[in-house]
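FAQ: What does the model actually see?

It sees only this:
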Amino acid sequence: MSNIIAILLSTSLGLGHLFAEDPDKQKEKWVHLTQCVTEGNWKVNDEGIIQLQPRHGEQGWKRYGSYLWLRQSYADFICRFEYLHPKGGNSGFYFRVKDKNNPVETGIEIQILDSFGKKGKLTHHDCGGVIFTQGPAKNMSKPANQWNQMTVRCVKSHLQVWLNGEKIQDLQLDKTELNNRPLNGHIGFQDHGLPMQLRNISIQEVSKP
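And it is asked to produce this:
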C-alpha cells in the first residue's frame, strides 16, 4: 500500500521570477501540488520538508524503496522545486515516465548531482544534464547542504531547464536519442539510496495552442 505524503507549500513561491523566464504563460493557473505517493523512505518533517533518509545498509546505487511520484500524469508542464543534498548527493527529476517500475528506459531524467566546483566539460551525468543526451550549458550547482532551485519546462518536444536562475538546457527532444519516449507520463524524484530533501514543489499544466 502506497503512503500518501502531504506537502506543505507556501502561498507565495516567488512565481514572478518564474514567469519572467516564461512570460507567455503569465495567465496560466498554477496548480500547487498537495500530495505525492511513494512506497519508499520519503517522509515529511515538522517544517514540511520532504526528506529521503535511506535505511541502514541502503547507501549507494542499490534501492530498496520507490521514487516519490506526483499522483497525476502530465504532458506539457512547468515544474518548479527546491532540493538540498549532502556532499556526494545524487538524485534525479523524472518526467513523462510510462512505466514507474522502469523509469530509466521509459521516461526522461534530469540529473541532480553534487557537481559544485567541477571544472572542464560537463556531461549528461552532471547536475542539470539530460541523461542520454547532453550536459548543462554551465555549472550552476551550489555547494552541498545549500538549497538549489530548479525549473523544468517541457512543451511538446521543447525542453528547457533553469537552475538557480540560469538557463542550463534548451533542446528539442525529438532531435535526440530520447525521441521515442512518450509525450505524457508520470513525474517523480529518484531514490538513489542517498539522503535528499525537497520543498516548495509546484507544477503548472501548459495548455496546448
